[in-house]
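Hi,

Apologies if this is the wrong queue. I'm a grad student, and the batch job for Outer membrane protein assembly factor BamA from Thalassovita mediterranea produced an output file that my downstream script rejects. I'm not sure whether the problem is my script or the file. Here is the sequence I used:
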Amino acid sequence: MTNFLGGRRVSPAESKSKLRSLGLAVFLSATTALTAAPNVASAQSYRFNSVSIEGNQRIEDGTILSYAGIARGQTVSAGELNAAYQRILASGLFESVEIVPRGGTLVIEVTEYPTVNRVAIEGNRRLKDEDLTAFLEIKPRLVFDPAKADRDAEKIAEAYAQQGRLASRVTPKIIRRSDNRVDVVFEVFEGDVTEIERISFVGNAVYPDRRLRRVLSTKQAGLLRRFLRSDTLVEDRIEFDKQVLSDFYMSRGYVDFRVMGVNAELARERDAYFVTFNVHEGDQFRVGEITTISDLSDVDADEFQEELKLKSGDIYTPTGVENAISRLEGLANKKGLNFVRVEPRISRNERDLTLDVEFELVRGPRVFVERIDIEGNTTTLDQVIRRQFRIVEGDPFNPREIRETAERIRALGFFGNSDVRAREGSRPDQVIVDVSVEEQPTGSLNFGGTYSTNAGLGLVIGLRERNFLGRGQSVALNLSGAEGSRVYSLQFTEPALLGRDLSFSLDATYSESTSGSFANFDTETIRLRPGLSFALGEKSRLGVFTKAERISLKRRASVTDLGGIVTSEIDRPDEWDLGLGYRLTYDSRIDELERDRGYRLTFEQEAGGMGSNNTYIKTTGNATAQTKVFNDEITLRATVEAGILAFNQGSSRSVDRFQIGSGLIRGFQPDGIGPREIVRAGGVPTGAIVSNDALGGDKFAVARFEAEFPLGLPEEYGLSGGVFYDVGSVWGVGNAAAATGDVFYDDFTLRQVVGVSLFWTTPIGPLRFNWSHALQKEEFDQEQTFNLTVSTQF
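Support response: The file is valid. Your script probably expects a header line. Output copied below for reference.
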């Protein structure tokens, strides 16, 4: 990095050397001149009758004299004269300074730094001018300072280094203009990206490198390096990864885990990094004896012991202990036992690798919340942030509750930065809780395309705002179209209706299918579904909803031969289906570190057809479980689903019944299995089939089992494999069977499918490729041996 001063290029080191030489020369000349006077030589002190300042154009004489600190008639020593020179030079206003005594007059000659006329950045393509100039110290119309120019060049280089361009160079150039002005131009050589070629670990025996690499946010460079921004070395990201690794091991009982150090070695060509994490795993500990004690007269320790969900033999995790403490303190609050705190004591048993946990309930200090101050929210209403608190002004202060509140505020996703701190209030027994937030954009407009083997190519337009009008509400408008179908939907969610843990949702959808669909008729659907949901417990939630729906069936002009059942359904007058129902869910995965294992249960019932001639009760259930084995290398997943549609009055249609396809059993087209109405030419059993319509069924039951495993390829490719086995059936058409036509597979007829999957994590989303083979199927089933979908997460 170089400076351009006095029309000649000099390096920063050379510039500093010349300034030191100049200062020494000035000092010696001043000393020599002063010692030439007989009275000065004898007293080593100097007196000037006047001070003359020359060369200044913008800076006032008084300002320079204030820096010098020398007045007329003042007696000064040689050291004080040198100090005056240093003060004037250190002001940063002058390119050069000279102090020259002339008899009884002290002459101060200065050369002012020029003013900045223009600041420009050249050669930058990867980073925009406005992004770089935002943090520069050099500004137009300010005095030019070479030190600031050097610092700004370093800042620009650091911005490129954050993007992995370590070979970038930034050179400040100074172009002299008239009237003592300069243009400052930063010439940028961006260079290539210095990627992370390899991430390895030393000291790990339990989990292999490939498993630990999946934990890190820093990734190795791979096939998608042009799309990834996580395959470059960023110091903050490495620090974050150290904490993530620690959390990963701690959540699995390795309480002695430590990251001993991280070594990043740059290749000789400076085009790649080799990063090594040096770790100490230690032993895995389990929970030993659990006890709850208290000396408080109003606390029954046995009652609190029964509240604990932590069990002996469980893998010990700090999160499990924190959850136990929260439960105990929550019980104390419910019982009106204010200021009761839980202090855990952990005892190690090295022989059997267990940790005994003793919870002691003690009386904490009597401290109250004086007030809650919120700042930084320009759009988000205070009430959105306040409702994340479980306490209000005047409540007993609980530090644990403040920490949990901070996590809830961060989880909103409305703020780029948030900080919750407590400080002493107006009295020692009161605290003030300060909340400082920095808002970030919460809206998005998405344009995209879709492709699946079922629907073909499609277009998706989505508009979403997660913090509508700063009220914490979510609004989403989606338009999607593919071959043979179009969907328009509007979703609105109020997460805290009436300021309580009560969520209100509204879903309005209009969809239609045309000639490209798998059925031999067109459909038009209008649906409006408002609902409320609230927590029943720590892991369970109940939702209630109502719906108004109308599904119209339209005869397709291109189809002339339809069965009697489908024809009667199309000819049925359209009716609005009014109904209400509830949905109960239970999710065992309350620990964020264990979201990839556990189970989820869902049960839903809906009573529909109110006010019409067709009334029914529809019941569905789903149970999904997932775990990881072989040191988290292999993911095992199992799902069981079932449903029954019971009509109290009237009969169902194809669009009302359960349709089973690739979404429930892989290996078959949509509506590919189940009861079917077959129509043959001439109505004779041996005639050619002219119509083969899926009728759906009033009952269905399916089970899906799958395993996902690594393929041994570099993790940065985002590829993994899987195998699956699906089994199930759909059956029963109810009163529709009485219509004219031949109905096949109206009884329980089992289908079985096996297959392999390829999972690919891409910048556009997780894709899943399925190749399947039906072990058991029926003659008129419509098989699908390949399917491409977006991979869903448990």
